[in-house]
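Many introductory courses stop at the sequence. We go one step further.
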Amino acid sequence: MAKNVICLWYDGAAEDAAKFYAQTFPDSAVTAVHRAPGDYPSGKQGQVLTVEFTVLGVRCLGLNGGPVFKHSEAFSFQIVTDNQAETDRYWNAIVNNGGTENACGWCKDRWGLSWQITPRMLRDAVTDPDRAAAKRAFEAMMKMKKIDIAAIEAARRGTASG
């Protein structure tokens, strides 16, 4: 195992979550499933205790720790996309699998983990050296759930309609 691994707490669903991520994102896989050698506070011997997996090459460990701790927006995966089709594909995969939409390109998966589906051009638009263009792009983004690249580009150019 790598020296630095992101540990994500689940209430018994670490393996399901890891499999979903592996099916959804490239360079992602479930690499190991470990069963509990004995009973523990939220499970029994033989149940899945931890799952090693990668999400877009980032190593993670899913821990089936029980209902005590929940995911929050204080941690999220930011997935940088190259076009609207890729943005739509990831957003729809998460939301249509029991997830929820949030604002500004954020959504949550069915396990409560937050994701930012962020087109590369959005980062460029809101950091545009032309501060008026950046502001227009930012204001357009603030009204969105899933990011609409064409609408952000139009706002950046100043050609967005009301």
